[in-house]
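Final report, closing paragraph on structural work. Over the funding period we assembled a curated collection of sequence-structure pairs, and we close with a single example.
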Amino acid sequence: MSQAAAWPDVVRDFERVDAGIVEQAAQFPSSIFADVAGRRGVEEGRQAPQGPEEELDRRGALHGCIAPLAPSMKFAGPALTVEVRPGDNLMIHAALAIARPGDVIVVDGKGDLTSALMGEIMTQQARALGVAAVVIDGAVRDAEAIRALGFPMFAAGLNPNGPTKNVPGRLNHPISVGGVTVRPGDLVVGDADGVTVIERGRAAALLPLAAEKVAAETTRIADIKSRKALRPGWLDAALRTAGVLKEGETL
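Its predicted structure, as stored:
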């Protein structure tokens, strides 16, 4: 019997990224974390991990098709992962039943856009439970009502069709969402630019790098505005390395 087969379909308890780390991470844009994590994302030809001990190395920015229903929506929190069959939301209801305040429900909806997996009623429930956000690789509906609530809902699309509620799935297994592996407890950060996933064990170490990145970008913007430096200092060297410019040549 494989380890995946021995692992229960519903994992109720898992280690979440520390709340203090989440609080600090919420100060930074998703793009900053995507940069300091190595600008990783979709990798072709790789399968999702099959059990809790398998090494994961596909964290990073989700595919750009997964976007907030409103650009003002933003969040940070630990991932509660859900795998559903296309067009069925039974396991999202199960996820809401075990979610803790601050959790981000991340759903592998297989990218299916033929029916919505969540709408206003479930969003109201998520909000009342203190769920921080929902990220779905699939469709949702009742977009205007969800926007009015201000609840951070990120999805791959919209569809007025409702889902079925009778197909089994899994909770808190490693999943693939938007081409990126998400493991329960990972740090998930989202805003108008999209969603970035950071390994739980790496999150604390990336916080000072994120702060340094923000400081560097702030200085760069100030230098542009003051006309002190209207192009990056690394440009000529990078062009030479790429073979665009010859050694000793400059723009």
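The chain has eight helices and eleven strands. Helices lie at 3-6, 19-25, 30-36, 90-98, 120-129, 143-149, 203-225, 235-241. We thank the funder for supporting this effort.
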